[in-house]
User: Fold these one by one.
Assistant:
Number 1:
Amino acid sequence: MTAFQLQCAACKIPLEGPDDPEPEDVLRCPRCGVEDRTDNVVAEVREYAKDRMAERVNTMLRDATRGKKFLDVVENPRPQRVYRFMIDLDLDG
Ligand SMILES: [Zn+2]
């Protein structure tokens, strides 16, 4: 049983692949056909999760400091990376 589902970022549906994929096994989106090796997918999803967490922290800081003149949150805008793969993170739960 997996704790989370690897998904296609464009279609937001689970990727298809072996039940217990090896790093070199290919995972594929059944709708748009985007595919990559499991190790590449996992690496990308890890980056995605890090980005999402950073966004979440930024939002929390912004909310926490809203209207307070003595605190300026310095944000570092980064170019939005486009991910092919994602996981369904439940950050708000
Ligand atoms: Zn897709």
Number 2:
Amino acid sequence: MKKTVFVLLSLIFLLTGCDYAGEDDNSAGVSAIENGTDGTYTGTDDENVPTKKVRFIDLPSETFENMGVDEVYLQEVGFTEAESLEIIRSGFSNIRSITEGKDEATKAKIKNFTIDVPIMSDNSRAVAPKWKVCTVNGKPNQKFHPDVDTARIDEYVMKARSIAFDLFTETDFINHIHIRYAYYMWGEYDPAIGVHEGIDMNVNQLEGDGTFRTVVSGIVNEVQHDGSGMGKLALYVSRENSTYFFLHAKRYEGYITKGKSISGRYYAGLQGGTGNGKQIYPPHVHIGTEKGSTTFCASGTDLDLRSQIPYDKFYKYVDPKYKF
Ligand SMILES: [Zn+2]
């Protein structure tokens, strides 16, 4: 483990008081799903997820990708377009060496670039579960919560891809280089953030326009327009007694209002990086589902996994022409 990572992790756990015993520690692995099936949640409310400023360059390597960092974002940090592409291609492994090679002023700019990272909730289990490790979309050693059925991970990736294509109405099935859909999956673990409670997907806005539709139709339980709150849209689907969530949008269309029924097939919003009313993440759409009619969406800033498995739920609404 790199020193910077260790320092960062120590800082996180010092700040949160989380008694984290390390990723290789094996706890009883109590099912977090069990706690969630009765619809009562102990998680923090997602409206005011506490965050702290962290130097971008100090983040653990997997965090760059899990946050949806793309070449546009890297250029904002201070890298050139060519360097950004090189960094993405290397899976972020050369980000620090490229930084060291820059002139002093640019190096200082990159090193001083901070982002708001959610602080893991005090509700985290006292001891980390034993993570399942598997290969996702060709990437080895990805860590998942023990409740994730990693034997189905290839199917989950395929379903996430179909959902993303429909959500962003992508039509380039051959190249599909514009869309990312499996970089931060449901139940995936990130040391800086926690266990992810949904699927992140985005479209490269150099290529696409970043608009999305919801795929599923439902009644609007809550909508946060123009980047307020978490940029949330909560859609209740009564026949399933489930609420479908979309987070981080920069804006939603004016026709989407509380109590209204909306179709999943029309343009609904624009992807963004909204958190706590600010643009803090690279642009993407986070989707997830919760049991019942609710506006509560598990925060994903602790080590528990409470939300419903989202893949099959979204996939059944995908237009057949986008199904892989
Ligand atoms: Zn997410």
